Structure prediction request, 234 residues.
Amino acid sequence: MRAKGFFILISLLVFALSPQAWPSSQSPNLQSDEWISVRKAVIDELTKRRGAYSTPQEDTANWKFTEEEKSREDDAYRENVDKARLSFIGARNTRDGLAAQVQSLSTDSDDTLQQIQTIRTTIANIDNSLIRWNQDLKTHQKSFETWLSTEKQGSTLVDTSKDRGQAEERLNEQIRSFQEKNSNLQKKIDDGRSDRETWTAALQKQESRYEPIRQELDKIRVKMEAAERSLKEA
Prediction:
């Protein structure tokens, strides 16, 4: 259609420029003026429409350029989509990895803190037992000394050697009983002190382990918050 229109305009121009197109009976001046006007109008129209018509080769070149441009735009779009997808996946994987570390460290931190609290409770119970055993030992020793003094005074009042021998035997038996009880209390105290030292060492170990865990957990939580922001922006 474009070529046909272009051909029609060319035909009009040829006709307008042809002397046969004008009647010979008209005056020369009028013929010349009209011819110039028509010629100018046709040339102006051709000039105006020059860009509206193209050859098949130009149409092919334009189509090829348009397709190539569209292909480049599509490739750029797909590349941007792939980059955005990879960025999102990377941010999500980073966030998930940090979240797993936070979960693991939180569990470890809670377990360690629970052990610390349990050990402290155990040490407090040992301290209370030591206080009670030491008090019992002092009370028992004082009672023993008072009883021993009384028994000795009573034994001096015994006249016969037979009665005195029986009194001494009872005295010795009571002394052995007091000594055994005293020894048991002392053993409890010694064992309690030994246990306290053991638990104190365990407490120091857990406390020294807990602090680095807590610090590392705080650092990873900061990183995870940053990863969460990156994920929202991806």
